[in-house]
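Re: that chain you flagged

S.,

Sorry for the slow reply, it's been a week of failed gels. I finally had a moment to sit down with the sequence you sent. For the record, here it is as I used it:
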Amino acid sequence: MRKIQILGTGCPKCKKLAENTETAAKELGLDYEMEKVTDLNAIMAFGVMMTPALAVDGVVKVVGKVPEPAEIVKLLA
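Prediction finished late last night. Pasting the structure tokens below so you have them in one place:
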């Protein structure tokens, strides 16, 4: 099971990143667990200074932007 984390305070961009990531994960038929990390200290512990960010299995893949589902599919595949 892949662990997908959305790092952000819950802003509209963070919500959009979560939606796009879910779309991509479902498209791939992935077995995944999604967690929304909203605590600033937890976000900074990833070394992320700009949100939203996407981490997969603890590795930050995207910072400060909202990629389209097709781009996220490549990151998850």
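What I noticed first: Helices lie at 12-28, 40-45, 69-76.

Talk soon,
D.
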